[in-house]
Each structure stands twice: as C-alpha cells, then as structure tokens.
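Dear colleague,

Following up on yesterday's call, I've attached the two folding results inline so they're easy to grep. Please treat them as preliminary; we haven't cross-checked anything against experimental data yet. The first protein's sequence and structure tokens come first.
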Amino acid sequence: MKNLLLIITLFIIVAKSTPVLAWNDCLNGKVNDPFPGSCGQYLDSNQDNICDHSQTALQTSSTPTTKNYHFFFIATFLIITYGLTFYLSLRKIITPLTHRKIWNFFLLISFLVSGILGILLVLKVSYNWPLPFPNSLFWHVEVGIAMATVAFFHLLWHWNYFLPLKTSVTLRTRRKKANSSEK
C-alpha cells in the first residue's frame, strides 16, 4: 500500500512539473507558434493559444481564448432526432428495422470520422504529418460527442445481451464460493 501511495505521489509530481519544463525548447526553432502549432508537440499550459515550447518564458495573455465544444447542443439534437424516429416507428410510418438502420448508420459514420481524425492527430503529434485541415481536434471531439450519444442508444437496444452475461458471472461466483466453503 505504501508503494502504491509513493508511485501515485511521484506520478502527480512529474505530471504537474512537465509544463514547467516545456518553455523555450521548440524542436523547429519557432518563436510564439500559434494554435494548433506547426509540429505535433503543441502544448499550452497557460491557455494563451501559443505553444509553450516556442515561448521564451511564461507569458500570459490578457484575453485567453478557449475552444467551446457543443456537447449539450449535439446531445440534445440527437436525442430529439432519436425520439422523432422512434415515434415514427411506433406510428408505423417507418419500420423499427429502418429506425435501427438509421441509427446504426449514424454510429458507423461518426465512428469512422472520429477514428480517422484520431489517427491523423496521432500521426501529426508523433511524426509531424501535416493535416489537411486545421481544426482536426475540434471536429474529432465534436464527432466523438455525437458518436458517444448514438453509442448510448445502441447500448440501450442491446442491454438484454449484457444482462445474461452479468447473471452467469454472478452464478459462477456463487458456485465457486459454495464449492470452496464445502471443502
């Protein structure tokens, strides 16, 4: 237990001190490189939209800008749209199979877009590959929000698949306890 606490403490110290070590060590020799950075090592611990690696010292911006993601708008829009297609399937305007196909298609497209953007971002960070468009991270997160929302619908559809799994695990655990107590 003491070793675990020591490891966690050391991890926190190293994690908190990393941004401090990032000043004025740009591999490309850039000075005040703006967001998203020209290389894959962009780090902005003080939220001034300038890469810390390219800054000569801790600089603060008078008006820090942040990226605002649209979680509630995207989730609400998808929940309302899901409700609409569910209502249409209940009223027999579309079949329940069509309802599921629509949402499986949305899940597939959001997974592919988010996954491909994620791979491109990894290639940018690891190998300094230029990206075809500058807002890749923003769109990766936005589409990821949509994917997570639709995946929640998907999980609700298939909830019955997981209930027998949990029951069988619980039964196996009970049998093992019963067998071990008999010995």
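Below is the second protein, in the same order (sequence, then structure):
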Amino acid sequence: MSSLLARLARYLTHHWKRGLLAAVIVLVLLGAAAGAGGEAADDFEIPGTESQQALDLFRAHSPAFAGADSTLVFTVQDGTINDPQAKQAIEGALDKVKALPDIASVADPYGQDATVSQDDKLAHEQRGEEGDQPERRGDQEDLRDPGAGARGVA
C-alpha cells in the first residue's frame, strides 16, 4: 500500500497540472451531482417502528400533541413588555398566529403561567401546531415583522 501511495505522490509531484485539473473536474462533477439530486426529503416516517406507532396514535387522538411546537420571543428596547404599546403589539402578533391554519394552541405570555423575564424586557410563548406541515413555513414570514406595528417591540 505504501508503494502505491509513493507512486501516486511522485506522479502528482511531476504532473501537478494534471492533478489540479483532475481535482477541479471532480469538484465540478460533485457539484453537478449535488445540484441534480433534487429536494431533500423531510418525511421522516418509518413504518412499523414503535415511535412511528406512537406518533400515529397521537395524530389520531390528539392532533395537537402530534404536531410541531414553536416558540415566539418578544423583546422591547425601551420600557417593558407590560407597557400598553408593547402589550398591544404582542397581542396583535399573537392574533396573527392564532389566525394561521392548523394552530392548535397559543399560550398567553401575560397569563397565569407568564413567561416574562425578571426585567420585563423579554417574553416568550409556545404554540402547538397540528400535524407536520413544513409547506406552511411561508406563512411564518408574515410574523417576522419587528414590532408588529409598534416601535421598539421586536
């Protein structure tokens, strides 16, 4: 094996231009193969496994548990989360989230189990979605509008 590697090293040392050309061709072919591969699979179902059976059971009896969970984080630069302007902006953003299709639940960052930081500048809430629906990710772009109409709320 070492004699093979020695011959390869000697060849590449004497014919480095050919080696460089071959490396560039291999990289171009790998790039073309990767581009022609199509879209990556996002369906992770494995029929017959226990975890798949559990997920199917959740989907059948409790769709909210079978979906994805997301966390929305709200911050303010000036003032606190509890200021009327910030509160209005956050509630407006949460209303937009609740209006999205297949949203099973949206927690209230001002409710009994509030998730507000100690300095009242950051709040987060959980939302549960019914089922796995990666094709709806475009709907979430609308929610990335910093402030949702209020200055200083992101």
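For the second protein, one point worth flagging: The chain is about 45% helix and 10% strand.

Best wishes,
A.L.
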